[in-house]
Amino acid sequence: MIAIGSDHGGFGLKQEIIAYLKDKGLEYKDYGTYTEESCDYPVYAGKVARAILSGECDRGILICGTGIGISIAANKFKGIRAAVCHDCFSAQATREHNDANILAMGARVVGPGLAVKITDTFLNTEFSNDERHINRIRQIEG
User: Fold this and answer.
1) Catalytic residue list
2) pLDDT above 90 for 45
3) Superfamily for domain range 2-141
């Protein structure tokens, strides 16, 4: 199951990603926001992070204006590795090398077509299980 969340700035792009997930038959849970009314992105970053940490969801997608703020908020949770990706190479690399469990994107940075491709890459790339990457993740987690 994929957890998805956004603030008001990411709401429109979140709707595009949800349409992609539905089209692919992928299970997801929308943690809000549900309107374009101004709201605080840390709330939704926390909801998605907690869903992953509890095991309710396997991976997450977070969207705000740039992807930066919402990823910083998510990364405050021990065990979360949220990566801002605005291209497919970064999405692939962060899954293979960092075992990232949350994809963050900026609705003011990427358009819907590219965002769908980035999402597809992130969801379909597995962690490499390379010992050097495992060691680095251990160092990050402290």
Assistant:
1) 64, 97
2) yes
3) Sugar-phosphate isomerase, RpiB/LacA/LacB (3.40.1400.10)
